[in-house]
What does this fold into?
Amino acid sequence: MTNRAQWNSQQVEQVIASLKNSPGALLPILHGIQDTQGFVPPDSVPMIADALNQTSAEIHGVISFYHHFRTSPSGQNVLQICRAEACQARGSRELEEHVKTKLRVDYHATTLDQEFTLEPVYCLGNCACGPSIRVNDEIVGRVTNDKFDDLVDELTTVELGIMSLNSVASEKQS
Ligand code: FES
It folds into this structure.
């Protein structure tokens, strides 16, 4: 994946060229772009539209229909909360209220410090251990409010730890 604030138009062109002739090419192209860039850059929409002989409005319509697709870079960490039935029966509704209050964001939004992007997801294949969430690539089960708070602290502490180590290192060098 590239730097969060940038995107690589050559990579996007490659994704489009490799998939544009396959049946139902639009969704695979959008997935491919998000997988390589972290989001679907608005400026890539005309490129997709040209390749598929569709209008930019049609491409925008599909992107906005599927909440999976982001049109801006995500935060440092992507948190997904399972909203499917088995996790709801195990308390995911209460958990999601806690998470939104704690992070002060709703779904499809990123915290002001760019640390966390919050997204809903519908089943992570971890139903017996709900409520389940995914933190970046890792699935975490039996998440309580306290466990979530610890997790956020841990992720934030790791970032701060790296920052303080870096500042110590630069102080030593100067
Ligand atoms: S219902 Fe939440 S992991 Fe399956």
Notes: The radius of gyration is 19 Å. Residues 161-174 have pLDDT under 50 and may be disordered. Residues 82, 84, 86-87, 123-127, 130, 132 surround FE2/S2 (inorganic) cluster (CB under 6 Å).
